[in-house]
Design brief:
The chain is α+β, with helices and mostly antiparallel strands. About 30% of the residues lie in helices and about 15% in strands. It is built from 13 helices and twelve strands. Helix 3 packs across helix 4. The protein is extended. The relative contact order is 0.05.
Length: about 425
């Protein structure tokens, strides 16, 4: 099937991740895919298959439909389902007995709740109209934002979802206060000639539909695999000894990060037997006040009033012992040798890597080499001035070599040839 039905807008039908063209057995790349671990199990003889199917729409919502025609459906197939009004196109996500478990989990009762039905498998005309409707969603959203801004409505349109038959569109928006969008619906219906439905969503659902990259460097959990958004409170950060910094703890949706709940149970189990750190320890050197706690090392750090810069590490058992002594009216004895300063941060083995990649780093080496060569030349010059006798001897030895006479055509300015020195004058300096 591929990703033609997701919010990425890929119309080629190929998955964006695994590149298996929908043949990987999971129905393509989608965060709402489900592994059917009951697919290989056969039903007992005489039992009919479960008549309800779960259908997925545009990577954001799922609904249950009744298979009245007893169609042979597989995961990933496109089907035309009942809508109000008209019909919609969706892909099959779960079939069989696993649908029964999902309906029980989501508290959907087929006898009490009204469940719509599946019309048929989608044909080529249905798929072409469905893809043409998805191609209009982005332009429709931009035009709708312009209309909402012109009307002065304090709302944010985040996504648009067209129905499969192009007769209806759902506009998803977020707003802090109640919005009167009756005039907006009239303008949108006149502009696009469709039925308009406004659906308000939360900031977490908005981030899930839009996607993005988190501070961890990976794609947002809500847009890849997270489907249920549980409440995250500041107590989750306090239990994990995190500083209450909104810029660090808030995600792209503006709410506290969902990942604060991932390891919360481990921290809750670890601090079950920890003493109450709000109580001050009465010692022979004054009242010790709690500063910080290392949960997994089971250390609690206290500071004395006269030595606030020095923290004293105490084990959990030691703190409990001191608190029992305080209840009996006995002051705890903290020995000076047990004091320990805060552990210093370990400096990295490397320095500023970005600074080392400066564009002028080779120029500095070049200047250093030039200065070195200049010093060597200067040193040689001073040596020659200090020993003029050696310089004269070297010049004399160079003059002892016989000179070759140039041919007449290479003489300059028609100068007469230099006379040859006599045999006794060869060793005399010039």
């Amino acid at each position: 099937m591929g990703c033609s039905g997701c919010s990425t807008g890929r119309g080629c039908g190929t998955p964006a991740g695994c590149k298996n063209n929908g043949s990987c057995g999971t129905g393509g790349c989608n965060k709402l895919n489900v592994f059917d671990w009951l697919s290989n199990m056969q039903l007992p003889s005489g039992q009919e298959p479960f008549p309800y199917v779960e259908i997925r729409f545009k990577n954001s919502r799922k609904e249950f439909y009744k298979n009245e025609g007893k169609l042979q459906l597989n995961v990933g197939e496109l089907v035309a389902v009942e809508a109000s009004p008209g019909h919609d196109i969706g892909s099959v996500s779960i079939t069989g007995e696993l649908v029964r478990l999902q309906m029980r989990k989501k508290k959907v009762d087929p006898e009490k709740d009204e469940i719509k039905k599946i019309y048929r498998k989608a044909n080529n005309n249905d798929i072409d109209k469905w893809k043409a409707a998805m191609a209009q969603e982005k332009d429709t959203m931009y035009k709708a934002r312009v209309i909402a801004t012109a009307l002065g409505l304090k709302m944010k349109l985040s996504d648009v979802e067209f129905q499969g038959d192009k007769t209806k569109a759902i506009f998803y928006y977020t707003a802090d206060d109640r919005v009167d969008f009756r005039e907006l619906i009239k303008r949108l219906a006149e502009e696009f000639r469709i039925r308009v439905e406004m659906r308000q969503i939360g900031s977490r659902q908005e981030a899930s539909r839009l996607g993005g990259i988190g501070s961890c460097g990976r794609e947002l959990c809500c847009s890849t695999w997270l489907t249920d958004f549980r409440t995250v409170s500041t107590s989750a950060a306090k239990y994990q000894q995190l500083s209450l910094n909104p810029q660090k703890l808030a995600g792209q949706c503006g709410k506290l990060k969902c990942c604060l709940n991932y390891e919360l149970d481990s921290y809750m189990d670890a601090i079950k037997d920890f003493p109450d750190t709000k109580l001050r320890l009465e010692t022979n050197r004054g009242y010790a006040v709690h500063q910080k706690t290392d949960i997994f090392k089971r250390l609690i750090w206290y500071s004395l009033p006269d030595e606030k810069d020095t923290f004293i590490p105490l084990s959990v058992e030691k703190v409990k012992e001191f608190q029992e002594l305080n209840k009996q009216g006995v002051k705890a004895d903290i020995m000076p040798e047990k004091q320990a300063a805060l552990p210093e941060e370990k400096k990295p083995d490397y320095e500023n890597v970005v600074g080392q990649d400066s564009l002028t780093r080779f120029d500095r080496d070049k200047n250093k080499r030039n200065n070195k060569n200049w010093k060597n030349k200067k040193k040689k010059g001073n040596t020659a001035q200090a020993n003029p006798q050696q310089q004269g001897e070297a010049k004399t030895s160079s003059q002892q070599k016989p000179q070759q006479q140039r041919p007449p055509q290479q003489r300059r300015n028609n100068r007469p040839p230099r006379p040859k020195p006599q045999q006794g004058e060869q060793n005399k300096p010039q």
